Amino acid sequence: MKKVQKELENVVGKDRMVEESDVDNLEYLNMVIKETFRIHPVVPFLIHESREDCTVNGFHIPNKSRIFINTWAIGRDQNTWNDPEKFFPERFMESNIDLRGHDFELIPFGSGRRSCPGMQLGLIMVRLVLAQLMHCFNWELPDSMVATELDMTEQFGVVMSRTKHLCAIPTYRLNK
Ligand code: HEM
């Protein structure tokens, strides 16, 4: 959070609110969002159907098979990611991996012709709302709790949410 806030101070300052036109300049925030989608994809399983017989990695897949693509496991694959369980946005610093469906190791919006048609809107909203929440407020956990004590257990479903709601206390931090 401190690193995101520092970047926001450098790019936006503390005298106005962050705007949509700022978000492309928020490199660290965008790395944080990639890292969050990697570890906690909104849709943990993509469900597709094959349109013809095919062979993938030596596995024969007959036409009309129901195919589950486990994006949750792809994001935590240790053959692809160093220290996959660690939240480490800097891993994207020297990397061209994008989340728009071109790089199969990070596909929070799916890929190809049935990927998410709302991706652009979704990305704008996530970037802007998160930037505003981090920019306008400092956040603390209640009862002197520290971040490592947070229960990050997920509830699997069509979309994946936290098992326990996040409760955090905001304090306003801008100049006006
Ligand atoms: C952060 C926000 C969002 C995420 C992470 C997300 C993710 C996804 C994913 C993973 C899929 C399935 C892709 C696949 O099966 O390969 C999907 C499908 C879809 N999404 Fe999104 N989505 C988001 C926002 C939105 C928004 C804002 C809209 C509409 C305004 C939208 C509309 C749809 C629709 C209609 C489909 C079904 C597409 C189809 O079956 O052809 N999504 N989304």
TrEMBL record:
Q: Where in the cell is it found?
A: Membrane
Binding, heme: C116
PANTHER family in UniProt: CYTOCHROME P450, CYTOCHROME P450 93A3-LIKE
**Taxonomic classification, please?**
Eukaryota, Viridiplantae, Streptophyta, Embryophyta, Tracheophyta
Checking Gene3D superfamilies in the record gives:
Cytochrome P450
Q: Which GO terms describe its cellular component?
A: membrane
The UniProt keyword set, sorted, is:
Heme, Iron, Membrane, Metal-binding, Monooxygenase, Oxidoreductase
Molecular-function annotations in GO:
heme binding; iron ion binding; monooxygenase activity; oxidoreductase activity, acting on paired donors, with incorporation or reduction of molecular oxygen
Q: Which cofactor does it need?
A: heme
Similarity remark? Belongs to the cytochrome P450 family.
Name under which the protein is recorded: Cytochrome P450
In which domain of life is the source organism classified?
A: Eukaryota
